[in-house]
Structure formats: structure tokens, C-alpha cells
Amino acid sequence: MADSRTTRSEGLGASSPAPAVTRAAAVLEALADSPSGRLTLSDLSRELGIPKSSTSNLLLALEEARLIIRQGADFALGRKLVELGAAYLSRLDEVQEFYKYCEQAPTLSGETVRIAMLDGDHVIYLARYEGHPAVRLTSNIGDKMPVSLCSVGKTLLAQLHDHDIEAMFPDGMELPTMTANSLRTAEELKAQIATIRKQGFAFEDEESTVGVVCLAVPVPTHGAHGPSLGLSVTALKATYSEEQGALMVKELKELARSLGNPMG
Amino acid sequence: MADSRTTRSEGLGASSPAPAVTRAAAVLEALADSPSGRLTLSDLSRELGIPKSSTSNLLLALEEARLIIRQGADFALGRKLVELGAAYLSRLDEVQEFYKYCEQAPTLSGETVRIAMLDGDHVIYLARYEGHPAVRLTSNIGDKMPVSLCSVGKTLLAQLHDHDIEAMFPDGMELPTMTANSLRTAEELKAQIATIRKQGFAFEDEESTVGVVCLAVPVPTHGAHGPSLGLSVTALKATYSEEQGALMVKELKELARSLGNPMG
DNA sequence: GGTTATTGTTCAGCAGATTGAACAATGAAT
DNA sequence: ATTCATTGTTCAATCTGCTGAACAATAACC
């Protein structure tokens, strides 16, 4: 939780074409990363290394834009961010298609399916289809998850070049863990990636949550740009069978293929 | 669609404590409002009245912060906004409680329930519980809706002071419509608000979608600040009955009360 | 209550971001 | 091909937003 602090620490040193904007973005990020989600002017000034008077100006401007709000003495993220985030998602054609496909897929339509996107060494969940009301995930849209801890993360990693993976996970690096089954070292992760590349899909066996298994496939990126997306199904280990898994992978792959092709 | 143009038009004239930030926010908003979600540097420069060279600087800084991304020639909202929006929602304790309550409520647990927030003359949907997989709303989290067109919007309006309502909807004002049942004038809206205040809940009869009815209640705002929230249930008119409606209103009110009390 | 350590605000001077005109690079039209 | 229109980039001069020290206003402490 507190380890990603160094990432932001300075970084503002490098001159920006519009420093005020870069700093404002840092403010938003600091608020998002803060455990309580609320920071005072002084907190922000101290943490980001920005003079108080400047911080005050930034906060005033951000507040006027409703990107943040005052709550008594301290500041928190504003509701406009929900709007902007939603605007982003609504433009992502893949999300619309994702819902439609899930609803009419023979096996998937009864499961919990998610579409996620790579964001550095984390994965962000963009949308969730729930075909099985009994099993409900605690995770929400927009949540972040370390790549090494979920099957989607690993499929997305598997699509990167080896030197990128090496840069993110140098040998000997310890990984964050959540259960006894979680991968522990960079070496284990790379071994799994090799398997995923061979199989074309990832399987996760109680690595993030006890009692839960996961299957995931990558969405082939059409063209150069565009985010790398992945699909996953989550199922209870108790009711999971290999045959069912094979069916789900087949449907996931079909959906992934259709998402990859610009024209459905 | 194109009528809200004037709102943003200048507005930047008023001096800001950090103009670059205010302009950057305007850029994000312009991208969110744009039908295609993609605008070029020149588009933005023209629309916002910012010199091209300055716009270029803003875009570079925003891109570096990953609040926007380049897509060939033009720019679009970035995925970081999803993250920030999610961070906002995750701090909203009400959303967590909302899910929990819906799951174990006798009647609501089988329906589609949503929690929404007032944002000017629109309503933003923050979370959606779906107990009935057969009926799936096309609306997504973060979507916006004119207040006058949905029951949640009207309950939230009903909580405002009369002079605020008068300012937003002066007599004679025409309202946006979506079906034959949609309210058409400010007078009709105010009459409904009076009814809602008496009843304590709002009923919507195919005013936004044919074949769909809605019930909504406001969440009492505890203390001075904090957003005004509302809850709604959506049901098919075909299967809707008054008795069922009464049950749902009862449960909605209970949930609203518990959300209103800081300590559950 | 008096002291100390905070907090957020104010303001004048300087560092520096902003600007517009001129530039090159692309694409549309003749 | 040649022109025309438009795009995004470059750069030096200027205007202005940023800064830090001093301020007032709380809050925490003994």
C-alpha cells in the first residue's frame, strides 16, 4: 500500500510543457492513492513538494472544475471524475459488444465475466457481466489489481515483449501475494507466462481468492494503438469442471476474436 | 446535444487561480461532450478559444499524466480517468452499503436497483444492482440523465429549495422529452414535485422508456455537505403491480434511511 | 491561560509559462 | 502538378502565474 509512494515522489522535477497541469494531475493521483481519500492542503503540499501557496491555487482551480471537492478542512476527489471516467468507457466500443455477446453465449451467459485493461503493472476492470446472481464478486468496475495476481493480468503480460516483462519483473523480485497459491517470485511468473503463450489462455487456481478459479484470454490488439484488453471468467472451484472450463475458454476466445476485429 | 454548448463557450474569461488547470479541465470536458470522443488539437483550440500553441502544451501535459491519449491525429480521454472515477466511487461508503442491502432485501433483491447522484440539472448513476438477469438496462454506471426524465431526478429535485428549482426551471420552460409520457413543461414538473413531497417517493410511468416504470426515493442528506443521493427501482410495466410497488418503496425507504445515518 | 506548533491566506517581485507570428508538413481541390 | 487550405510545431518577447516570507487563525499542548 505504502510502497508505491516512491513512484510519485518527485517526478515533477522534469520540466513539463504545462507544469500547473502536471501538478494538478499529481494532486488527483495523490488523493486517489490516499487510504482515506481525504487530504488537507498541507498534506498535499508536503507530499508533492509543492509550495503551500501554489497548492492552494491548484486546489481552488480543481475545485472550480469540480474535479475535487472541499470537505471541511480537507479535499477529496470530485464527482466530475465519475462522469469523465464513464465518458471514457462509453466510447470504448468493446464494452458495448462485450455485454451483448455475454448475454447470448451458451455457457458464459450464466457466469461472471469481466473485461479488463492493462495499466502499468496493474489491471483495471472495465465492465462486468453477471449471469449468476448467487455468486457476486466484491470487486467493482474501475478496481485495480496487480497483474501477477489474476489470470487476465497474466494473459496481458504474455502479450508483451520479453524485455518489457523483464523490466517490470527482474529475476528475484518478490511479488505481492493474497493466498497460499499466489505466485511468489518473478521466475514463477515468467514460467507461467511461457505456459500461457503455448496454451493461449490463463488459468488461475485460488491465487487471489480461496475457493475461486479464473480463466482468461487476451483480446488481440488490432493495429498499433489501442489498449490491450483481456477477458476473464470467474467461477467457484467447488462447481468447476474441466469440461466446463474448455467450453468457457472456447467462448471467451470467440468473443476476443470478435472484439479484436474492428468490424465485429 | 448541441445545446449545452453555450455553457462552456467562454467562461474561461473569469480569471482563475491556476488558468492552465482550468483550461485543462475544459479540454477534458470538451472531449467528454464530443459525440465521437475524439478531437484534434485544432478542434479544441477553436472550440475553447485557446491559442494553438497553448493547447498543444496542455495536451502534452495531459497526455503525460495519461488523462488523455493520442489516437493518431486526435486526442481522446485516457484510461486514468476510469481509475480516478473508481477511486471516487470506492470512497463513497454508500455504494458499498447499497450493494449489501440489495442482496438481502426480500423484494428488491430480485429487481434492478440503482443509486444516483444529483449533478446540476442531470443525474449520474453511481452503481447498479441487478437481481433480474432477464431485464437488463442499457444504461451504465456514470451515465447522465436529465433530472426531469427519471424518478430519481425528480425525488432529488424535490429535496431542493423552491427558489433553486425555480432558477433551474422557470415557468414556461420546455423540458427535454423521450416518450409521449415525458413531462413537457416546468409547470408539470413542479406539480409532480409537490406530489412527491407529499408521498415521499416518486413514480415514473413510461416517461423515459416505453414499457418501463420506475420508483425512487431520496436519501436524506446527513449534515451540511455530502452529495444528495437517490435510489430507484426499475421494473417492466407488464409485470408491475401496485402491491409489489408498495413493498419496493418500503424497502427503498429503509435502505435510504440506513444510508442517511452515518453509522448504518 | 499562555505557549507552541500547526494551519491556510496574502502580496510584491521574479522566474517562467503563454502567446502569436512564421514555419514546415500534410491533404484537398482545381 | 500546382495551388490552396489547414494542420501541428517552433521560438523569442512579454505578460502573468508562481513563489517564499510574513501574516492571522486555529488547534494542541503543558
Describe this structure in words.
2 copies of one chain form a homodimer. Chain A is of the alpha+beta class and 264 residues long. Chain A folds into 2 domains: 5-82, Winged helix-like DNA-binding domain superfamily/Winged helix DNA-binding domain (Arc Repressor Mutant, subunit A, Orthogonal Bundle), CATH 1.10.10.10; 92-260, GAF domain (Beta-Lactamase, 2-Layer Sandwich). Helix content of chain A is 42%, strand content 18%. The first copy, chain A, has 10 helices and 8 strands. Chain A has a 6-stranded antiparallel sheet with strand order 5-4-3-8-7-6. In chain A, a hairpin with a 6-residue loop joins β6 and β7. The model of chain A is unreliable at 1-13 (pLDDT under 50). At the A-B interface, α2, α4, α5, α6 and β4 of A face α2, α4, α5, α6 and β5 of B. Chain A binds a DNA duplex (30 and 30 nucleotides) through α4.
List keywords for this structure.
alpha+beta, Arc Repressor Mutant, subunit A, 264 residues, 10 helices, Beta-Lactamase, 8 strands, homodimer, six-stranded antiparallel β-sheet, DNA-binding
